[in-house]
# Entry
Amino acid sequence: KAGVTQTPRYLIKTRGQQVTLSCSPISGHRSVSWYQQTPGQGLQFLFEYFSETQRNKGNFPGRFSGRQFSNSRSEMNVSTLELGDSALYLCASSPEGGAVYNEQFFGPGTRLTVL
Amino acid sequence: AQTVTQSQPEMSVQEAETVTLSCTYDTSESDYYLFWYKQPPSRQMILVIRQEAYKQQNATENRFSVNFQKAAKSFSLKISDSQLGDAAMYFCAYRSGSGTASKLTFGTGTRLQVTL
# Structure
């Protein structure tokens, strides 16, 4: 099976712009989670989508949003970009989010630079 | 809220030697999972090993093993016979076992260098 793919891999934007990142989970996986990785804050959970519904949300401002499509592909959007949004954004998929444990498989990430 | 602490920002080990990475966590839950993830310079996060809190036996995966001390809330990773390919950032992570939460709470990571 193909792994988790994220597009684009690199992105440069300027302050005030908005950006959309895409994540295609492993085939058959229904849960998609997003994480932000920065040198200062480390890895922080953004949100999780399962069956097109946001199930969990981290402590990020409303500028960060996401959605999931019927084929489980997910997008995250950041509006009104700030310099502090520069980060590696990681997507992870798992067969089912739920009470039963499932491993999360990570994509290679999208490196966002805000100038 | 759960927290995960990795007190060793960097560690170094010689090839073929053994190294232990430390991790402590804080939680009031009794049902949870603990993980060690490896992030090589290419940045793709890979699961190294996992431990269910209800299992007393320490998990082992080939050269990787953990020392899980539930009462002390400690979860260290031992890498035996270290190889150059083990060089990476290692993250300890916590996941609640209740409800439907898939959220992982990560530590700040330990950068492992492997020298000849």
The mean pLDDT of chain A is 92. Chain A has no helices and eleven strands. The interface with chain B takes residues 31, 33, 35, 42-45, 48, 50, 55-56, 58, 88, 90, 92, 94, 97-99, 101-109 of chain A (CB under 8 Å). The CA atoms of residues 48 and 86 of chain A lie 20 Å apart.
